[in-house]
Amino acid sequence: MIYLKSFKLSPHTVNNPNAYPYNVFRKISGEVFVFNNITVLYGNNGSGKSTLLNLIANKLDITGAEEFTNREYPLDYMWNCLYSLGENEGDGESDRIPPNSLYIKSEDILYEIKKIQQEAVLKEGYLYQHSKLGYTKENLEKLKQSSQMYKQIEIMKFANEKYSNGETSIQIFDEYLVPNGLYLLDEPETSLSPTNQIQLAEEINKLVRFFNCQFIIATHSPFMLGILDAKIYNLDAPLLRTFRWSELENVRFFYDFFKERKNEFE
């Protein structure tokens, strides 16, 4: 399903070479990104992957959009960006952005992991559950001081800690990525082992194929790049164009690294 068909960067420039985000996209000013069901934004640090995702999220008012700290230049830049939505639902397109669409950053996932592991959050959840069971305020206050609550919190802490950050990340993605949504993912491979990166990429392919989802993903993970059925834009290139995953610098680096050590595997 195509919800967001294209996004055009502002064609305007400014004299200040440090003006953000003009300086980030100076090489591709006014260029148009045309999106597939899955589109990958590839590039090294500072290439503009995260900035572009946040521009799209702000322009389309997608949940998770992060406010720009410098409000003058970014807002002016954003207003001059243009986008087009899908038009004909019969062709696998839609003329609206689904309300459950999300922009999910790697730091959001890390924050959720930290929150899950915080004892205060566990206590709050435990007390909330008991309030739903009909406990009065007086009973809840007694429960706060009880050995019963302490023991239960310790059990829950152990239950959370027995899962790695990567396993917890996969659980969070399972919860957030639901059918009929446009999802902007910024480096979702953070904290994930290669096996889990491949598992997430395969799940994304399924969500697109069977559940009417569209993804725009910023990543340089060779494992996800190799599994995702995606159109890939290389933001490190001097001109905006698409690449095969095997042409990308980061992927070639891994290939050469293991090729030079081939004898150690035989």
TrEMBL record:
Claim: Transport is one of the keywords in the record: yes
Segments crossing the lipid bilayer: none
Keyword vocabulary terms for this entry: Cell membrane, Ion transport, Iron, Iron transport, Membrane, Transport
GO CC entries: plasma membrane
Pfam family, one: AAA_15
Gene3D superfamilies with a match to the protein in the record: P-loop containing nucleotide triphosphate hydrolases (3.40.50.300)
InterPro entries: AAA+_ATPase, AAA_GajA/Old/RecF-like, P-loop_NTPase, Siderophore_ABC-ATPase
BP GO terms, sorted: iron ion transport
Domain AAA+ ATPase: start-end pairs: 35-238
Domain of life, source organism: Bacteria
Name this polypeptide is given: AAA+ ATPase domain-containing protein
Organism: Heyndrickxia sporothermodurans
